[in-house]
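Notes from hallway chat w/ T.B., transcribed later so I don't forget. T.B. wanted the structure written out for a chain they're using in a teaching module, and asked if we could keep both sequence and C-alpha cells in one place. Agreed to drop them here.
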Amino acid sequence: MAVLVTAEVPGQTAQGYDGMLGMLAPALEQAPGFILHAAYPVDGGWRIIEIWESQNDASQFFARYVHPNLPAGIKPKRTVQVLHKLVT
C-alpha cells in the first residue's frame, strides 16, 4: 500500500536542503518503491513530502541514505500516512 511520508525539518535552510538533495537525488531516483519527492520552506525550516510504494521502502531509504548524512543539529520529524488511493 502506498504511503505519504512527511518530514518536518526544523532549522533546515535552502542551502542545506539543496546540498542534501544534490547528494541524494541519484539514489532516490533509483530507490525501490520511490514515487515522488517535493519540498518547500516553512517557518523555521523545511517540509519534505514523499510518496513511496510502501513504508518499508521509505524507511530503508531513510536509514541507508538520509540519516547517516544529516548535518549536526538537523533532526527531521517524520510521519507516515497510508494512502487510500494514489492516481499517477
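Follow-up for T.B.: The mean pLDDT is 96. Might be a good example for the class.
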